[in-house]
């Protein structure tokens, strides 16, 4: 989205970031211990970030070209300046535990699903898990009122055709090809990664595709970090033999992406990930920030699947989708 030339989009995004900051401030107080010092630093974070956004209201290039990516980066910088490590840490832990309890039943259900409909089921699981997103006002409200439950959301997913619906093409490709290596970019902790992307990854592994599962190096909202993913996969391996075996024989590897925001600039991933991805022939980018707000128009040489639930009105407008619609874009490699 070009926030430099589109004044309305720029001011809409500034407003989204301004409103969202109150919630981050509140969580920062809790995550830093709840005392007077925590309150002071959280308030200083909010003040500083609001100030930067106000600068952008006055001058569209106040701190470099305006973009959602830039605003995300500035927010992280303001948190770091106040020594606020990870406001979402306890929420991520709680959601991971809740999702882990549902995982064995879900894996059984997937294994009992006929091959013809299995990818559809796996993609739908990814959509439903992607509702756990504490970067959007709408989904924060759903989460707080207990309406972001995985099975409820999945049962209420829109019927096909989805807003962007390349599922048939993806299924066709999967029926013709077994990819050598997939790089899977995961998004949020909790149901998103545990019930969405881990079962998806397990199916790729089952077919003989090696998988690199890659998460952010540093915390960003409720995105799972690489370190958290390593711990989580250890837990998953205790419950699932296929994952355990894949980790042991290194067909499944976990690599930090180098990223620290909910979007991703794939020209700036970690050296380790770039090196390990050289022979990949399937790219899976999941989540609104990574698949729609960034990389939506980026074309790759490898087969690429971009999947996300659309949770922000301005993103829906930009990609031509409905709010809470779901997007499944498959782009064959060149
Ligand atoms: Mg996210």
Shape: globular
Number of strands: 7
Structural class: alpha/beta
Attached small molecules? magnesium ion
CA-atom Rg in angstroms: 19 Å
What is the percent of helical residues? Answer: 40-55%
Distance between the termini: 25 Å
Order of helices and strands: HHHHHHHEHEHEHHEHEHEHE
Major sheet size, sense and barrel closure: 7 strands, mixed
Strand order of the largest sheet: 1-7-6-5-2-3-4
Indicate the proportion of strand residues. Answer: 5-15%
Q: Mean pLDDT across all residues, rounded?
A: 97
Q: What's the oligomerization state?
A: single chain
List the uncertain runs: none
| Total helical segments | 14
Characterise this structure.
- The chain has helices at residues 7-31, 36-58, 68-81, 89-111, 115-129, 137-144, 150-155, 167-176, 191-206, 226-239, 241-248, 271-276, 288-293, 313-319; strands spanning 164-165, 181-185, 210-215, 252-256, 282-286, 303-309, 326-331.
- The chain is an alpha/beta fold and 334 residues long.
- A seven-stranded mixed β-sheet has the order 1-7-6-5-2-3-4.
- Helix 1 (7-31) packs antiparallel against helix 2 (36-58) and helix 2 (36-58) runs antiparallel to helix 3 (68-81).
- The model has no long low-confidence stretch (mean pLDDT 97).
- The structure holds magnesium ion.
Secondary-structure map with pairings?
Layout: H1 7-31, H2 36-58, H3 68-81, H4 89-111, H5 115-129, H6 137-144, H7 150-155, E1 164-165, H8 167-176, E2 181-185, H9 191-206, E3 210-215, H10 226-239, H11 241-248, E4 252-256, H12 271-276, E5 282-286, H13 288-293, E6 303-309, H14 313-319, E7 326-331
Parallel strand pairs: 1-7, 2-3, 2-5, 3-4, 5-6
Antiparallel strand pairs: 6-7
Helix pairs in contact: 1-2, 2-3, 4-9, 4-10, 5-9, 10-11
Magnesium ion is lined by residues 133, 135, 187-188, 221, 223, 262, 287, 289.
């Amino acid at each position: 989205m070009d926030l430099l030339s589109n004044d309305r989009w720029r001011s809409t995004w500034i407003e989204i970031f301004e409103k969202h900051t109150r919630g981050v401030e509140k969580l920062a107080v809790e995550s830093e211990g709840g005392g007077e010092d925590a309150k002071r630093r959280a308030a200083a974070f909010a003040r500083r970030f609001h100030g930067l956004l106000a600068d952008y209201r006055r001058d569209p290039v106040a701190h470099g070209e305006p973009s959602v990516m830039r605003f995300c980066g500035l927010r992280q910088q303001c948190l770091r300046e106040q020594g606020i490590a990870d406001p979402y840490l306890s929420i991520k832990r709680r959601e991971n535990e809740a999702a882990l309890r549902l995982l064995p039943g879900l894996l059984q259900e997937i294994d009992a699903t006929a091959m013809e409909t299995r990818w559809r089921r796996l993609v739908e699981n990814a959509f439903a898990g992607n509702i756990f997103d504490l970067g959007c006002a709408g989904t924060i409200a759903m989460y707080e009122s207990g309406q972001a439950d995985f099975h409820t959301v999945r049962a209420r997913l829109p019927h096909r055709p989805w807003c962007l619906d390349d599922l048939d093409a993806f299924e066709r490709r999967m029926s013709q090809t077994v990819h050598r290596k997939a790089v899977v970019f995961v998004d949020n902790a909790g149901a998103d990664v545990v019930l969405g992307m881990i079962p998806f990854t397990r199916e790729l592994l089952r077919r003989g595709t090696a998988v690199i599962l890659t998460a952010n190096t540093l915390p960003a909202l409720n995105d799972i970090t690489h370190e958290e993913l390593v711990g989580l996969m250890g837990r998953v391996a205790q419950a699932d033999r296929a994952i355990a075996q894949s980790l042991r024989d290194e067909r499944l590897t976990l690599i930090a992406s180098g990223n620290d925001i909910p979007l991703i600039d794939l020209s700036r991933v970690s050296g380790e990930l770039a090196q390990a991805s050289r022979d990949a022939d399937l790219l899976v980018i999941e989540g609104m920030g990574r698949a729609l707000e960034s990389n939506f128009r980026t074309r790759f040489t490898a087969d690429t699947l971009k999947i996300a639930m659309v949770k922000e009105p301005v993103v829906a407008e930009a990609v031509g989708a409905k709010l809470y619609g779901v997007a499944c874009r498959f782009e064959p490699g060149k």
